[in-house]
Amino acid sequence: MYPVAWAVVEKETTDSWKWFIGLLIKDLDINNEGAGWVFISDQQKGLLNSV
């Protein structure tokens, strides 16, 4: 396990998580609705509403 990406945002919200996840999907070229990928975060504020 190793960190793949991180971001600095003004506030941790659902919108900032959606923005971050969208960039992550694009940069990692994730297809098939993410089949085979597992993402782990210890910072969940707003994350559950975003996925």
From TrEMBL:
This is MULE transposase domain-containing protein. It comes from Aegilops tauschii subsp. strangulata (Goatgrass).
